Prior knowledge:
- This protein is mostly helical.
- Helix 11 crosses helix 12 (297-306), helix 12 packs antiparallel against helix 13 and helix 31 (715-732) packs parallel to helix 33 (755-771).
- The protein contains 45 helices and 8 strands.
- A 5-stranded parallel beta sheet has the order 2-3-4-1-5, sandwiched between helices. Strands 6-8-7 form a 3-stranded antiparallel beta sheet.
- It starts with 16 loop residues before the first helix and ends with a helix.
- Strand 7 (328-331) and strand 8 form a beta hairpin.
Amino acid sequence: MTPSTTVRSPLRLYGRDDELATLETLLAHLRRGDGGALVLAASPGLGRTALLRAAAEAHRARGPVLYATADPAARAVPCGGLHALLGSGHAAALSPAAPDADQQGPPAAPPPAITPDALAARLRELGAGRPLLVCVDDAHTWDQASRSALAFVARGLGAGSRIAVLLSAVDGAVFAGLPALPLGPLGQAAASALLDRLAPGAAPGTVPGTEGIDPIVRAELLREAAGNPRLLAGLTGRLTPDQLAGRTPLPFPLPGAEAVLAAHAERLDGLPDRTRALLLLAAAAQEHEPDGAGADALLLLRAGTRGGLPRDFLDRALFGASATAGLLQRAGSRVHFADRLVARAVLHHAPWAHRRAAHELLATLLTETGDRARAARPDAAPAAPAVAPPGTGTPPPPAAPAIIGAPAEATTASPGRALTHPPAARVPAPPPVPLAALVQRACAAPGPDAALAARLEAAADAPFPHAERSAALVRAALLSAEPALRAARFAAAAEQAGLAGDPSLARALLARTGPRAPGTAGPAAEPARGLAPYVHGMLALRSGPAADAHEALLAAAGLLGPHDPRRALDALLGAAEAAWAAGDALGYLDAMNRLARSPLEAGLEHYRAGMCAVLEGRTAEGHALLRRCLDPAREPGDPAALLRAGVAALVLGDVAAACRAGARALAAVRTRGPDALLPGALEHLAYAELRAGRHAGARAHALEGLHAARRAGQPNSSARLHAVLALAASVEGPAEACAAHGDAALAGAGPHGLSQAVTLATWARARADLASGRPGEAAARLAPLVGTGPGRGHFAARMLAVPCWVEAAVLGGRLPEESRELRAAVDEFASWAARTADAGAPAQLARCRALLAPADEADARYAEALAHHGRAGGDFERARTQLLYGQWLRRRRRTREARGPLRDALVAFQRCSARAWADRAAGELRAAGEQAPARRNAADEPLAALTPQQQRIARCVAEGATNREVALRLSLSPRTVDHHLRNVFAALGIRSRTELARLLSP
Length: 1002
């Protein structure tokens, strides 16, 4: 039996299937006698050594292998790398199948110099007529003579050479001219699978990960490793089981990266002193910036100049493309490391005195000029004064810790101002210091410093962006010796990261807080106990199950109430929002009623009492209170208040006011933040525009909101925005877009219990079915939503779907006298229409009654509906009523009368860009005897010889409908459909439905 030659590794290589396939192709060519060369190019830790070993193991059974690794002692010896390689080959050539041939003892001394020709001859000799695989790990560290000779030989390999050279290097440019296979980081799925295998207890025969890694710890490990498998293994291996399970806080920074950082640092050793000095300044300058923001090039220029670096060197390094060996890259005014691990390696391996000097130099420069010139703006708030001079070690007076950063969406005071120290205990403050300068001073601190930590916490306030506040609070936490205070500041940093739209960082910081440990009770511990659950709940509100968010925020409100009333209020508002999203009316009322226990500002109290009154059935009282929330002058720039005004307007049915409030809320979020509110603001505006019939605007804002939600890691907003886009597509088309958005909404909303998104997405799919002439499918989708059973729709949205359900049920062949459910639903809709200010509700109610009315009453009902539409406006809904009226007239053989409303419906649908609905109206108009202009496509051309009625029947049959289903769609008898279908077959020269479907297929 021929042994397998598939490239395998003793341990599974996760996420490297494509790379293994490339290596297998190289080895397959080698076995056929055709050589070649390949460079595995990757940063340290990405798995190039593992791939090299896998290829060597796969080839040993078929031929000799020369395997060499870099020897630091031989780097300065000319041809030292080749000596090591050829020395390993003496034993390998003698026993090509020996599994440990590349680990034999030292060979006899090779010749002192090896020319490229001599190397090629020696390799052919060692192969002895068998395919030879040459593997060199870390070949970029070889001496220049060895690299040049090996590259020369590798370039000459090809058909008939029977030699393959496989190299690994940090950069393929070192071996220019040879094919390179760059290795990227592992994908999320592969890294997660590797983490499961690395977790304690992942023995063979067990399910990976069954021992349980806490989800937040898992997310932090994956985020910190960034797809580097060696780094992931190092980080995981240094954590205790309690830390992996989330029972104790994670250290900061995570240990275990030393080996990977040391490998990166080796690349720095050969750089000139001035290059290493600039790299140290660049790495240090990133410490006060948000993650991924890089460093300010002008700040680096000033720091380098102040530090004595030549100006021409700085210009080339910062504004050119040389002088840093490709380690730094410039994007506009920002400077980034090409690999973020290099920045960490620079800081990790620099002597402490050099690091401290770099941070102090940057702090001095930032203090002199202000934090990005913010202090020069006349409207900028000064940095918060400190409670003690830096470095004095004077502890703050005993009081509850200051926890900065209450979310702007729910506060009426300055966001971020929470617990502060008693005024009587304050000491004279030094001059204000910019926040970035304080962060640099914190980086230079040799150990815990309570005074500097307090200064950082006090300064981390408006007008600084939330991301910068988070970075400052992290430094404050690291300077805090007291565990409770440290946890509180990490939780506050997590809150700010969440408001900045970085939930992954927020969860990572929460992992540093840990659960409440025994013996931590006391004034300093109580705020931290409530803040971490509060941040957990707020993150779950945007990206987790709504029920979990509701319960977490209720618990947080109870913990925060005695110590932090503002956040307690925000937690209750968040719990109410979660209950609303889940369709839990009782949970919503519970959260809103708890708000009544605390004093509220007038606008918020009107909103709370009004919403509670509406849900409790006191509609008139509730509407009166909610109207007091619509005053645009009451909250001119508060995004949260404006969003509440939009919700109040929608509950009232005043869609115009909802659009105005939504537009103002969006403008406020764009100008004031926080970034985490942007997806929600776009979602509120898009839904209000949808209710107002502004479908194009709703689609544009929903698409922008979808992108914003993805950037901010808010899948719950994504699901709701997909539902809005599905509703817009159910009007404008195409049907495929409606189906795609509807499915995406259901996929995201279902697992998280987002009842409102599920209701809207299902309604959208049903409305698209109606547009396509499939009323039976539409009725089947909507029946559970408008009913009273377990599948009942969201309490605030199900009434909106009732008119569609009535239309679908009647057009689907359900006789009015056969269904009490239809009339019960219409009666409930009538009760809702009487309470709402929605101008379109009376028209839709009259349309429903027209569909259910006997023939002698329907005419008047349709006329009533059209009169209401005339007063309310709204082209789309009026066109739907005109379409149904014209269809009803044509079915009564009043074809001449039917043409007027059908013609009006067609024009209105075209004006709304409702293409599918326009096609349906055009088909009805042609069936009424008028040649309406039809939107044709390639599939319509074979039907050009048919009458309009025959075309409609042919298209329905081609979609798979039976004669009876076609009859229901087109309001014909099955016998008439059969008659027309025979004529269609005769005119088209076909004999079966299958042939018709094939003829009309795109």
